[in-house]
Amino acid sequence: MTPGLSPTHQVRLARPSLDLDAAQRFYADGLGLRVLHRSSHDEFAPLLMLGLPGAAWHLELTHAHHVHVPPTPTGEDLLVIYLDDPVPPELIARLEAHGGTRVPALNLYWDRWGVTIRDPDGYRLVLCQRGWSNDP
Asked: What's the pLDDT band for 42 if we cut at 50, 70, 90?
């Protein structure tokens, strides 16, 4: 293990968003993440933090008001969630109803083992039916 790092350290994935309301509908109402914090009058930029209570990670979306920072996603900018079960069709439908678009994956591995959905800012969420273990 790298000195100073621990599996219990918090991880924040931060990205720009053009519309925090649309992002909240997709990730909270569609995917089921909780809004951990939302600020519209932050000193630096409005932000939306989403995640699961007790998890060691969260997603932070920001909308800079002092400079235009557009999202610039590529086909390999992925947020992958390992479900360890088949992807529920009702979850896909809910994500699509809340602003997501099902798209083919750039890497065919994800089409074989899951479903790729583009969020309102163009970033890709992969729901993978496989489980994940970091054991070698």
From this structure: low
Beta-carbon count within 10 A of 50 CB: 22
What class does CATH assign to 11-65+73-128?
A: alpha beta
Nearest to 46 by CA among 12, 25, 74, 23: 23
| Closest among 34, 44, 61 to 120, alpha carbons compared | 61
Query: Over the stretch 106-131, which tens digit does the pLDDT of each residue have?
Result: 999 999 999 999 999 999 999 999 99
pLDDT in tens, 48-63: 999 998 898 999 999 8
Q: How far is 4 from 29, CA to CA, in rounded Å?
A: 36
- The pTM score is 0.90
Token pair for residue 40?
């519209």
Instruction: Count the alpha carbons within 13 Å of 108 in the hemisphere toward its beta carbon.
Output: 0
How far apart are the C-alpha atoms of 100 and 46, rounded to whole Å?
A: 22
Residues sharing a CB contact under 8 Å with residue 46, sequence separation 6 or more, in sequence order: 20, 39, 40, 62, 63, 65
